[in-house]
TrEMBL record:
Pfam families: RibD_C (PF01872). Coiled coil: none annotated. Transmembrane segments: none annotated. It comes from [Mycobacterium] burgundiense. NCBIfam families: PRK14059.1-1, PRK14059.1-2, PRK14059.1-4. Keywords: NADP, Oxidoreductase. Residues 38-249 form the Bacterial bifunctional deaminase-reductase C-terminal domain. The keyword NADP applies. Pathway: Cofactor biosynthesis; riboflavin biosynthesis. This is Pyrimidine reductase family protein. InterPro entries: DHFR-like_dom_sf (IPR024072), RibDG_C (IPR002734), Riboflavin_Biosynth_HTPR (IPR050765). SUPFAM superfamilies: Dihydrofolate reductase-like (SSF53597).
């Protein structure tokens, strides 16, 4: 048997502590007294790294993942998502229980967080569920070249915002965060897709990743949780790791610097 490296220490996880609803809220709370946007991403992946099953991330989930999905939405000021994910997952507006609304009011948040859709082309239709089934007006974060046509097409169904810099055909994620901060949305949750996630990572604007690992193998050519133009290494530390009886793991990682 090979000898372990000198000084190496491994820890067997899986203590007996049961995490109740109150404790769960503490584990996923955003930092206090934020003065800038704190960007949290929430993804699910199979053991072999697939971000979808049969084309949708929802195909990997189970009860525990849905509980955390709802909790992270309840804690966020805004939910940022790419237009492709809105289409594939058939997004509607966020839904909040009475208890969640009361907790949000106590934290000084609006009762329901808006969906903020990132799209360089503005190619969204007014009859999409995200516009027709939402208590609050969604934000559309688009490019300068698509701004006026998108505003004309969507009308009062959305607040359309220019988030370009020098490239007037593209959305700059730093400008996305600036626009959100201007509206008081500092607790940012992004749910994908992989390209938008990669943009935050490449710009070094992702503060934490919440990752559910589903106890399945998918194989094939399913996407990862991140795609981008170039590899960018971001060092993270594990904040916590939870598990359930269904075999799912729930990890929260926070950027080290």
């Amino acid at each position: 048997m090979a000898q372990p490296a000198a000084g190496m220490q491994l820890t067997l996880l899986g203590g007996a502590e049961t995490v109740d609803e109150h404790r769960l809220g503490d584990l996923y709370a955003y930092p206090d007294a934020l003065t800038r946007c704190w960007v949290r991403s929430n993804f699910i992946a199979s053991i072999d790294g697939a971000a979808t099953a049969e084309g949708k991330s929802g195909g990997l989930g189970a009860a525990g993942d849905r509980v955390l999905f709802a909790l992270m939405r309840q804690l966020a000021d805004v939910i940022v998502v790419g237009a492709g994910t809105v289409r594939v997952e058939n997004y509607g507006g966020a839904q909040m229980s009475v208890g969640a609304r009361q907790a949000r009011q106590a934290r000084g948040q609006a009762e329901v967080p808006p969906i903020a859709i990132v799209t360089g082309t503005g190619a969204l239709e007014r009859d999409m569920k995200v516009f027709t089934h939402s208590e609050v007006v969604p934000l559309v974060l688009t490019s300068a070249t698509a701004l006026e046509s998108t505003r004309t097409r969507l009308g009062a169904a959305a607040e359309v915002i220019d988030c370009s810099t020098s490239d007037k055909t593209a959305v700059d994620v730093a400008m996305v965060l600036a626009a959100l901060a201007d509206r008081g949305h500092l607790r940012v949750l992004t749910e994908g897709g992989p390209r938008l996630h990669g943009s935050f990572i490449e710009a070094k604007l992702l503060d934490e990743l919440c990752l559910t690992v589903a106890p399945v193998l998918v194989g094939g050519h399913a996407p990862r949780i991140t795609t981008g133009l170039a590899p960018v290494q971001t060092d993270l530390r594990r904040a916590h790791l939870l598990a359930d009886d269904d075999g799912y793991l729930y990890a929260r990682y926070v950027r080290t610097a």
